[in-house]
Amino acid sequence: MFFNDVHVRVRFVVIVIIIALILIIGKVFYIQVISYNKLSQITEDLWSRKMTINAPRGDIVDRNGNILATSIVTTTIYVVPNQIVDKEKVAKDIAEILNCDYDDVYKYVSKHSSMEIIRKGMDLDSSTADKIEALNYDGVYLVVDSKRYYPYGEMLAHIIGFVGSDNQGLSGLELTYDNYLKGTNGELKYYSDGKGNKLEIPDSYVAPTKGMTLKLTLDIELVKAVDNELKNAMDKYNAESALSIVMNPKTGEILAMGSLPSFDPEHYQDYSEEVINRNLPIWMTYEPGSTFKIITLASSVQEGTIDLFKDTYTDTGAVTIDGSTLHCWKHSGHGTQTYLEVVENSCNPGFVSLGNKLGTQKLMSYIKNFGFGSKTGIDLNGEGNGILFKEEKMGPLELATTAFGQGISVTPIQQITAVSAVINGGTLYTPYVVDNVSDVISNTIVMQNSPKEKRKVISPETSATVRYALESVVANGTGKNAYIENYRVGGKTGTAQKVKDGTYMIGNYILSFIGFLPANDPEVVAYVAVNNPKGVTQYGGTVSAPIARSILMSAIETLNISEQSGGILKEYSYLDVKYLVVPDVVGMSKKEATKALKDFKVKYTGSGDTVVYMSPSANTFQSVETTITLLLN
Q1: Which of 502, 512, 504, 459 minimizes the C-alpha distance to 482?
Q2: What are 51-83's pLDDT values in tens digits?
Q3: Is residue 600 within 8 Å of 624, Cβ to Cβ?
Q4: Is residue 312 over pLDDT 80?
């Protein structure tokens, strides 16, 4: 009845039309204003194609800012197959320039995909890139990229690591600090229709952001010295492997680290996983031998079980423990000696005595407190744990062998970290190789490492006593080959027989030495181990001590360590070149100076009778073969 009224029907239709118009206008407003950005982005995504531009990875530098790893500019070829008209010609020309297989290139330009990277067209130099660009082919794009470059090659490969073809960190610091180093990728965007034909819309470019800078505690000059010494050792002794660590004992900072065999990080695919994945200074575990005696010595002095200078031990050359005979390296024995001489002579039976005086529980407590049996926490991947006897299963024999470093297994980084605690006043630190991470854009430090104290293990007084004993080892004992004139050097040799399938190998040893200076206030400690050297008497003092001496001498120069006086004078044998203190003869007459310098060769320059200058300087240790030049007035 209601709709029979014409006016009512007209009004109803008008209202419906008005509502429809309002809805349409509202929808148009919603699309054009409210949803414009969203819909525009959807449309753009349908048209656009993106080429990712890898960000240059951040630099890795040493403590003085020298570049150890960086990214260099290269060029990569991208192709859009649908935009390439003459695929055969394009493939032929590119293959000729890249000097690669035509079929390989044709495979890329013929794919049914929006975009491809020609693998042989990655990391192009500028000359090759210019030739590709000159072709000016549609569908062929050249994008600026970056490639990782390691200026020192194999030298730091195990520490720094390497990256994959996608610029992703795969090993070492490149992996551990990848989130800091990788940066933010950029992109090149172009537009095409559904068939892949390029639209007349300008390309857009977003520049990549370089990664952060990793500053290490390493000193590249000291690393070079270590690398040189290890290479010489490998060549001279035809060794299976060689390694070294140099540390600041007061902080835990690693100043240098190296091991051989190594690999080229830019061509890591050419090496076995065994070589590239084993950073020997932190991964390798073996019986430490006599360098471990430092721990037994420090524990004994701390507990007061012996007076190093007064108490004596009589060595007959062997000692029988629980039915087993343990020998000293000197088969006839050292006779009666003070415990300081036991340390100087590296006498195994004497250290068995020290272990027995401490007892199993006390010795193992110190060993664990010094960090053995667990990882040090160094900021490198692949660290080993080492192996200790279970205390409840240790009998008299296990206690005896542990006391002189046999029957247990440790890593080099554990050894140098523990000895650092012995000589630095008694504090165990966590070793580290990364000093800080900084943002190159804001020039701010985003992560800073600092020395981390774990615990106090021994007292400063004990530390001083052990330092004196180890200085005496270098001056008067088995470590004489590490002695450096005019410097106070402490250290300990190690000769460890290797084990295979539970049996000690014959004539196969790891020879080691750990040394530090200045002995009264250590600034640097160095550990060296050579695995199975051949054609030489296999003692740590013969092989590794001279290598450590050379590394410490490099540290003196690199770290600018001053000469010291007041140390223990070396006892020379008839085979040694003798060194003496040069007396001060400035102000003396020519006759008086000649008499005072009777042990040296003397050369005069100038005329007159009074010495006004001398070279080398007075009060320094010099070889008796040194010529002392005197300037007369």
Answers
A1: 512
A2: 677 788 999 999 999 999 998 877 777 777 777
A3: yes
A4: yes
pTM above 0.90, yes or no: no
Give the separation between CA 410 and CA 398, rounded to whole angstroms: 16
Chain segment 208-239, per-residue pLDDT in tens = 788 999 999 999 999 999 999 999 999 999 99
Can you name the CATH fold of 579-632?
Answer: Trypsin Inhibitor V; Chain A (3.30.10)
Mean pLDDT for 188-216 is 69
Contact 506, 532 (CB under 8 A): no
Q: Of 153, 253, 177, 196, which Cα lies nearest the Cα of 48?
A: 196
Backbone region of residue 180 per phi and psi (left: phi > 0; alpha: psi in -120 to 50; beta: other values): alpha
Peptide bond into 522 cis (omega under 30): no
Residues 611 and 519: their CA atoms lie apart, in Å, by 35
Could you report the per-residue pLDDT of 600-632, keeping only the tens digit for each? 888 888 888 898 898 888 877 777 888 888 888
87 Cβ partners below 8 Å, 6+ apart?
81, 106, 109, 110
Task: Give the Cα separation of 89 and 84 in Å (integer).
Answer: 10
Q: Using an 8 Å Cβ cutoff, are 256 and 227 in contact?
A: no
| Residue from 190, 187, 188, 186 nearest 202 by CA | 190
Residue carrying structure tokens 């050894």: 415
The answer to whether the CB of 395 falls within 8 A of the CB of 407 is no
Helix (H) or strand (E) holding 48: strand 48-53
CATH superfamily membership of 50-216: Penicillin-binding protein 2a (Domain 2) (3.90.1310.10)
DSSP string for 461-487: HHHHHHHHHHHHHHHHSTTGGG--TTS
Give the length of the chain: 633
- Tell me the pLDDT of the chain averaged across its residues: 86
Token digits of residue 610: 């009074």
385-389 own/partner pairs: CB under 8 Å, 24+ apart:
385/285, 385/411, 386/285, 386/410, 386/411, 386/414, 387/285, 388/364, 389/364
Q: 172, 381 in Cβ contact below 8 A?
A: yes
Asked if 116 and 81 touch (Cβ cutoff 8 Å), the reply is: yes
Say which CATH superfamily domain 220-266+275-558 falls into: DD-peptidase/beta-lactamase superfamily (3.40.710.10)
| Residue numbers annotated as active site | 290
Residue 406 CA to residue 380 CA, distance in Å, equals: 27
Rounded (5°) CA angle 482-487-491: 40
Distance of alpha carbon 26 from alpha carbon 215, whole angstroms: 59
The pLDDT, as a whole number, for residue 29 is 73
Here the tokens at position 633 are 């007035």
- The listed range with the strongest mean pLDDT (279-283, 405-409, 608-612) is 279-283
Weakest-pLDDT range from 248-252, 369-373, 627-631: 627-631
Distance separating alpha carbons of residues 386 and 285, to the nearest angstrom: 6
293: confidence class by pLDDT, cuts 50, 70, 90? very high
* Amino acid in position 264: D
Q: Does residue 308 have a pLDDT over 80?
A: yes
Please state, in angstroms and rounded to a whole number, the distance separating the CA atoms of residues 441 and 520.
44
Q: How far apart are the first and last CA of the chain?
A: 142
Where on the phi/psi map is residue 609: left (φ > 0), alpha (ψ -120 to 50), or beta?
alpha
**The pLDDT of residue 183 is above 90:** no
